Inverse folding.
């Protein structure tokens, strides 16, 4: 089964925008004047750089196409299920002698400095599917921490 | 020049005018060393701040009628009748401070950077009054300035009798923009979560924590002696300022590199077996060392209590320095659980934690003023060996990372208690029980003798 990429609406818009822009750049590059391959007996360095840029563009475009084909939009769960941690949930937890708040997102949008934690991180994995008031144990080869969920909220994402 | 350490620095990003300004600051910084050397005396716990024949009780008694005796900015001497009297720093060093102040004013007049200009001008005045409040507040606004300079009497490590008197120091450097951004990012991630505090603790809220990483040109006075890798100001004794305006910590690139090369990495090579060493590159370990310093300085501001320095008195820095290190480790644990750090990065951080603490214990024999840090190292080792986090295998040591985390967690609970609500007598007993160097001497000292001699 192909891997699914979970994205918020904002995240999807960002990916789509990048995809369209890269396609435009590729079009302009291919249809513009490209440097000649030969310059005296050596390969023209300008041509090499042009080809390198193009290769990079092609691979990023292919990557984005793959993501867009396998994307699944993160949606707010129905009211009755909003007491369970799912993708897009902002959770308030107590662990490691601290209180912490963050939103669980797909790996593509993970950004810990901005409180967006990947579903695949140890804490993300441990919290998914759990309810308010539950204490879960986050197990890693080095750390075993218990983590209590004190609040779950779903904002418009 | 005694009491001064100079570093090679690239000044090409400075304009001609800035270079003149920079050199004036370096000259002013250099002059601070002589004041520090008059304060320093490793033979006595009170250094040269108090008469060497005066007992703690006598000084405390005299301070009841003359509070200036325990002012942070006075020397205590005996008058002709033998009575203890207080001489303010700015009077004792009037001539020297006037010269330093003049150089600072000249430097300020050359600055196009208005924040730096206002700060240096104000510092030039404050040096002559022993009240640094105004210039400290202005200094906190210079975190983005290309040129960095701190000059004055701030840290109290030299006064092991009361932990009151401030020692002179100065540094001058140039901002490392790229590293500062990295440090800023790490610091911000740690500050996202909020620590829980013990019931009854008088927690001081810090409005902002700023950071800058500098390529240093000169260290003078206390900082040249201690060779700090980072420094956090205003001092924890100036909590009223910190609560209102926040703090700014500085990381010094040259000493970070120097300490890693000369002490931390060689300790790693001696203590751990070859197979274990091969798992971690020098670059990974260096990054962990740099991060450990950033987290250490960040965590200083996470554990400020209104009354900690009063309750713990001269034992305060023992707890302060050790606990900040452990909070740094705990923060890294949280970052790994959030995928902000990899497991390997956490492992390198824990390895560096051990090497740093061994470094203090190795260095204290030749640098007795490092006793606060070394005692923290001894306490750590005690907990790690008792918790079987560190095990001797033939000629080397093995780390059990899981047990290490548990041991440090246990130690952190004890330290939190002392910092938050513990009293002087309890703190003293804890230090006496766990702070002995016996374990270090038995297990590590023979292997690390070469490092202490380097």
């Amino acid at each position: 089964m192909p891997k699914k990429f979970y994205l918020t609406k904002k995240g999807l818009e960002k990916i789509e925008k990048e995809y369209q822009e890269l396609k435009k750049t590729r079009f302009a590059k291919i249809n513009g004047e490209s440097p000649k391959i030969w310059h005296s007996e050596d390969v023209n360095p300008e041509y090499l750089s042009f080809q390198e840029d193009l290769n990079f563009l092609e691979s990023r475009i292919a990557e984005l196409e793959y993501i867009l084909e396998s994307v699944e939009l993160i949606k707010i769960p129905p009211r009755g299920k909003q007491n369970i941690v799912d993708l897009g949930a902002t959770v308030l937890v107590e662990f490691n002698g601290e209180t912490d708040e963050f939103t669980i997102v797909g790996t593509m949008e993970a950004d810990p400095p901005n409180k967006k934690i990947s579903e695949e991180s140890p804490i993300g994995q441990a919290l998914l599917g759990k309810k308010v008031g539950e204490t879960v144990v986050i197990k890693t080869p080095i750390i075993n921490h218990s983590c209590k969920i004190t609040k779950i909220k779903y904002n418009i994402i | 020049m005694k009491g001064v350490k100079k570093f090679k620095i690239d000044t090409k990003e400075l304009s001609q005018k800035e270079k003149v300004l920079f050199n004036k600051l370096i000259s002013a910084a250099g002059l601070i060393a002589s004041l520090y050397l008059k304060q320093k005396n490793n033979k006595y716990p009170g250094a040269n701040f108090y008469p060497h024949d005066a007992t703690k009780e006598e000084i405390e008694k005299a301070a009841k009628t003359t509070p200036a005796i325990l002012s942070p900015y006075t020397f205590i001497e005996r008058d002709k009748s033998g009575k203890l009297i207080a001489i303010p720093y700015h009077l004792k060093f009037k001539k020297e401070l006037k010269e330093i102040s003049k150089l600072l004013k000249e430097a300020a007049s050359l600055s196009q950077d208005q924040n730096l200009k206002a700060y240096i001008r104000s510092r030039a005045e404050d040096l002559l009054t022993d009240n640094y409040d105004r210039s400290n507040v202005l200094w906190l606004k210079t975190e983005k300035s290309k040129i960095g300079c701190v000059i004055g009497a701030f840290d109290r490590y030299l006064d092991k009798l009361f932990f009151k008197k401030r020692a002179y120091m100065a540094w001058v450097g140039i901002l490392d923009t790229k590293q500062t951004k990295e440090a800023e990012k790490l610091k911000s991630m740690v500050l996202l979560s909020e620590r829980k505090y013990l019931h009854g603790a008088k927690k001081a809220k810090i409005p902002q924590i700023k950071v800058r990483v500098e390529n240093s040109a000169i260290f003078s006075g206390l900082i040249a002696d201690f060779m700090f890798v980072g420094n956090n100001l205003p001092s924890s004794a100036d909590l009223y300022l910190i609560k209102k305006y926040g703090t700014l910590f500085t990381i010094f690139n040259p000493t970070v590199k120097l300490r890693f090369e000369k002490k931390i990495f060689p300790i790693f090579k001696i203590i751990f077996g070859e197979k274990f060493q091969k798992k971690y590159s020098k670059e990974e370990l260096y990054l962990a060392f740099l991060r450990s310093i950033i987290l250490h300085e960040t965590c200083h501001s996470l554990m400020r209590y209104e009354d900690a320095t009063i309750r713990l008195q001269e034992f305060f820095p023992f707890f302060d320095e050790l606990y900040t290190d452990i909070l740094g480790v705990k923060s890294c644990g949280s970052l790994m659980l959030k995928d902000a750090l990899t497991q390997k990065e956490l492992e390198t951080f824990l390895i560096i934690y051990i090497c740093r603490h061994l470094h203090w214990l190795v260095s204290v024999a030749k640098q007795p003023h490092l006793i606060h840090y070394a005692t923290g190292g001894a306490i750590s080792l005690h907990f790690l060996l008792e918790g079987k986090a560190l095990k001797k295998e033939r000629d080397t040591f093995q780390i059990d990372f899981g047990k290490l985390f548990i041991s440090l967690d246990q130690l952190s609970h004890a330290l939190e208690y002392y910092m938050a609500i513990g009293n002087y007598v309890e703190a003293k007993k804890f230090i006496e029980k766990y702070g002995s160097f016996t374990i270090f001497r038995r297990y590590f000292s023979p292997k690390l003798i070469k490092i202490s001699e380097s």
Chain A is about 35% helix and 30% strand. Chain A touches chain B at residues 94-100, 102, 110, 112-113, 115, 117-118, 120-124, 138, 140-145 (CB under 8 Å). The radius of gyration of chain A is 22 Å.
